[in-house]
Amino acid sequence: MATQLDLECDWPPRARFLESLGAFCRLIRFDKRGTGLSDRPDHIATLEERIDDIRAVMDAAGSKSAAILGASEGSSMACLFAATHPDRTRALLIWGGQARWVRTDDYPWGSTPEEDERGIAELSEHGITLEYEFPDGVPDDQAAYAEYLMRWHRAGASPAALVALARMNAQIDIRDILPDIRVPTLVMNRTGDPVAHIDAARNLAAHIPGARFQEFPGDTHSISNIEPEKVLATIEEFITGAPSRLRTTRVLASILVLDMVGSTKRASELGDSGWKDLLSRHRAATDAEVAYFGGAVVDHAGDGVLATFDGPARAVRCGRAAVDKAHELGLQLRAGIHTGEVERDGVAATGIAVHIAARIGALAAADEVLVTSTVRDLVAGSGIEFEDRGRHLLKGVSEARRVYRVSAV
Prior knowledge:
Rossmann fold, 8-stranded mixed beta sheet, 13 helices
C-alpha cells in the first residue's frame, strides 16, 4: 500500500530489478501522495487525485505518453488512468491486481467484509505484517529480507495512514470501467499469490478488451522475488514488441447533466426579457462552476447543461455546487452523473453513458444530485456521502441501475 523510493534500492534484488527495467525503457517512479517521499496531505488521496498525480509526474518528467505499470492496489489507479487518458497511455501493465479487494455476492474473491474489518483492526493495533510475502511465516534464510521489508513499510507511511489507505482500498471497485480500457494491456499474476487471487486476476484481464494474461509460479505477491528474469523478459517483449496503441476517440469520462425544474412557470412569471436575463446569469454561474472543477461544457440544451469531467468526484462536487448556485438565483436544478465511455469529437461527447446520466438526472427531485453505482464506487475515500435510492430501470438501457443520492460533499 505504501512505498519508499530511496529504500527500494537498499535491497540488491530489488535494485537489480529496477536497473533491468531501466535498461530497455525510461523508468519513471513516484511514491503515492501521502506515502514515501511524497508530501503528507490532510487526507488520503482518492483514485481521482492519484491519476492526477500520474499525469503531474509525467508532465514534470516531460513524458507525453508512457507504459503504465500498476502493482497490487496500484492497479486500480493504473486502470483508471488508462481508461481516462488513452492518449497518454502507450500500454497498461498490471501486476497482482484485482477489480476489488473485498468480496460481494457477485464477486467471490478477496476478504469478506468481516475479515477486512479484522485486518484493519490488527493493522491499527500492530502495524503491517508480512503475510503477503510470507504466508507461511518467515523462513530462517529470509530473516534479513523480512527485516528490510518492515523497515521499508515503516518508512512508507504512518500506521494511521496505512489504516486510512486500507479503508479506502476496501471500497474501491473498478469493474465498471474495465471494458473502457482501449490500450494494449498485460495482466500478470503469480499462481499462489496470497493477496491477489489468480482467478481474480484472470477475471480482471477477461473484462479488458484484448488484454493478455500471463501467469508466473510462486506463492508470493512480489514481482521480483522469484525468477525476476522471466518477469522482466515478458515486460520487455510486451513494451518493445507490442503493436501500436489503438487509435480511438473513445475515452472514459464522468458526465454531469443538469436540468431545470419548473422553468416554464418561471419564464411566464418573468416575461421574455426577464427570463432571458436570468437564464444568462444562470448559465454564466454554471459554466464558472464547471470550469472551476476542471470540466468542459459540452452543450447548453434549452435550460439544461451537459458537461464532462476526467474525474467522478469533480463531477459530483460540481453538480452539488451548480445546484446551490442556482438556488441563490431562485432556480431549482436536478442533476444526474454517470461515469462511462463516451465518443469524443472535439468537445462534444456522445454515447450510452450520456443517456444514462440524463436518465439518472430525470429521476432526481428538485435540488437533488443522483449518481450511478459506478460513480459511487470510484469516489471511495473522497469524503462524499451517499444514500441508496434503490435500483431503477432506465429507458433505453437494458439493465437496471442502482442509484444513489449525494447527501454530503
